[in-house]
Amino acid sequence: MSEEFEPKILAYCCQWCSYAAADLAGSMRLQYPPNVRIIRVPCTGRVDMLYLLRAIEDGADGVFLSGCLLDDCHYVNGNYKALKRVEKVKGMLEAMGIEPGRVEMYFNSSAMGPQFAQTCIDFTQRIRELGPLYPQPQKAAVGA
Length: 144
Prior knowledge:
The chain contains 4 helices and 4 strands, in the order E-H-E-H-E-H-E-H. It is an alpha/beta fold. It has a single domain (about 10-130), classed as Rossmann fold (3-Layer(aba) Sandwich).
């Protein structure tokens, strides 16, 4: 009996655009995978690289940041800072032998509820295809 892998995904969303897009998706009753856990942050530019790495270390199969559209950040350039950090984390993961695609940066305005829901669906599918970051131990057969 094999169960389909359901990844644990953490999403850091800026409160001004992406969190509002997630809220809009909910208001529109759009479905996206329930395994995406959203953390609201003032700006994705405030998300340190250590938060991304710690999420992976603590068992998340994938992590993404979702911020304001480029050149439309509430804090001027926070999303550019976040993008640079995500690229650095991807390089670090690759150096450790972990697929860099487990970390990503997306951009959604507050009016992009459907796009936010699709982002969650697409990222979840990507992580499903990559498989679990930490394979689960096999259960011993009873009577073996």
